[in-house]
Design goal:
Blueprint (H helix, E strand, L loop, with lengths): L9 H34 L1 H9 L1 H28 L2 H36 L4 H16 L1 H16 L5 H23 L4 H26 L7 H4 L3 H33 L3 H17 L1 H19 L3 H34 L8 H16 L1 H16 L3 H21 L1 H4 L1 H51 L1
Length: 462
């Protein structure tokens, strides 16, 4: 079911689109949580730490894929907002080729570099082998992740945030069943968690593809639509690749911090891994809001309605700030309790470190909200390269913490890494947003004046 976000109340349209997206995001986190809880309880704290230690590397590689796929969908949203359905189909057809190229490149690069990066991150020797086996299987299944995110990205570009949710819910349930089958019944160890994740993503991706072909007439592509078109590929890649790179740049910063955490020992690794799981769950509404703004701004840019873009950004920022207060309260009162599900039998010191991590991050959530709203809004308007600079700012902040503060402050510096990165990114994003929106205002005002002048001249000559 497509949805035109260029009409009606901006906030209402945003919230209606965001609701299914949020549920889907929560189930996406459910994938990760199910893996982590079952790994921790079935295989123990060391195995949990092994899987958790690969989180930043996973984000570096598959985060690039996720960001890239989201970016690939933005030109489709712009064409849909402009009412050019032929261009929607042509651009969708090029995603087939871009997806195949991306899958081949990501899989090859990741497999050749995984061992070296894990060693560079100072992964503790007692968990290195399990970490390597787990993440290698996940990277081999990168195609499944790309398939689902391309399909769901196209549907969301057309305003349909519900259908991808249904497939994701089914896949999450399948993931849990497969986790139990592989790890408890078949005794496959951490490899079983990786197999379960890849197979579940593949199922949801295939279901999404079948639905698009059978139930969305607009997306029934012809041979002409599927014919490789280098010009259109470049247009799409110019938006998608910088978005993917932005994710990877952010991930490089988290890898630096993870390396510093690894140097503090397995207990610190386990604490940060558990805290990160809770943080990802609690921040899911902010993430979903950001993804919504990419589609919203993309469609309204196509419609050349800058007023709606401004109004939507301002309204959703207020709502996001209100949620941040609730998120901080959750982290303070319940964060440690939720983390204990991942760490069966963990000692009190680890849980205390988890709680400290969550409180410091929760206090900085308003800054994270600004990142999600303004970065995705810029990307939706086609300014992916500008938005990528915020990732560079985050990288710089995390590098300062990892190399300059962890050695002196220890675990406290780890707790401060995310807030510091968010402050740096906000300064960059807010400046760029106002610059680019002002440019659009002047450009569209000039275009409007030119059209009016041309009409007046024609009337006089007639």
């Amino acid at each position: 079911m497509t949805q035109d976000m260029t009409t009606g109340s901006p906030l209402r349209r945003i919230l209606l689109f965001c609701a299914p997206l949020l549920v889907g995001n929560l189930f996406q986190q459910f994938y990760n949580i199910a893996d982590s809880v079952l790994v921790g309880r079935i295989l123990g704290v060391n195995s949990f730490a092994a899987v958790g230690s690969t989180g930043s590397l996973n984000f570096l590689v598959l985060g690039f894929a996720l960001g890239m796929c989201s970016g690939f969908a933005i030109p489709i949203a712009q064409s849909f907002g402009a009412g050019d359905m032929d261009e929607v189909r042509r651009r969708t057809g090029q995603l087939v080729w871009l997806g195949l190229i991306a899958t081949a490149l990501i899989t090859l690069i990741a497999l050749f570099c995984t061992d070296d990066v894990l060693r560079l991150m100072q992964t503790p020797a007692e968990i290195f082998d399990e970490a390597y086996r787990y993440i290698s299987i996940v990277f081999l299944g990168a195609g499944a992740t790309i398939l689902y995110n391309l399909g769901s990205g196209v549907l969301r570009a057309l305003g349909d945030s519900r259908t991808p949710l249904y497939f994701l819910v089914a896949a999450a349930l399948a993931n849990i069943a497969l986790d139990v089958l592989f790890m408890r019944v078949l005794g496959t160890g951490v490899e079983g968690a990786a197999y379960a994740t890849v197979l579940s993503q593949g199922l949801s991706g295939l279901a999404c593809l079948v639905y698009m072909w059978r139930c969305v007439p607009l997306l029934r592509l012809s041979r002409d639509d599927l014919r490789p078109d280098l010009r259109r590929m470049v247009v799409i890649a110019n938006v998608g690749v910088p978005m993917g790179a932005q994710f990877s740049i952010t991930a490089i910063g988290t890898i630096m911090v993870q390396g510093a955490v690894n140097s503090l020992g397995t207990s610190a690794v386990a604490a940060v891994a558990a805290g990160s799981k809770v943080h990802m769950l609690v921040s899911a509404p902010l993430d979903s809001t950001g993804a919504t703004m990419a589609t919203y701004c993309g469609q309204n840019l196509g419609a050349k309605d800058l007023w709606r873009i401004r109004r939507g950004v301002n309204a959703v920022t207020v709502v996001a700030f209100a949620y941040c207060a609730l998120a901080l309260a959750f982290n303070y009162y319940l964060g440690g309790t939720v983390a204990s599900f991942f760490l069966d039998g963990a000692d009190a010191a680890i849980l205390a470190d988890v709680r400290r991590y969550l409180v410091y991050n929760g206090a900085a959530y308003p800054m994270l909200a600004v990142i999600f709203v303004f970065r995705n809004s810029l990307q939706g308007m086609g300014f992916s390269s500008q938005a990528m600079s915020a990732g560079v700012a985050e990288l710089a902040a995390r590098a300062i913490v990892a190399f300059g503060m962890v050695g002196r402050l220890g675990y406290l510096a780890v707790c401060l890494a995310n807030p510091a990165a968010w402050v740096f990114a906000d300064a960059m994003l807010l400046t760029l947003y106002h610059i680019e929106v002002s440019k659009l205002e002047r450009r569209w005002a000039v275009s409007s004046e030119q059209r009016e002048t041309a009409v007046a001249v024609r009337l006089r000559t007639e």
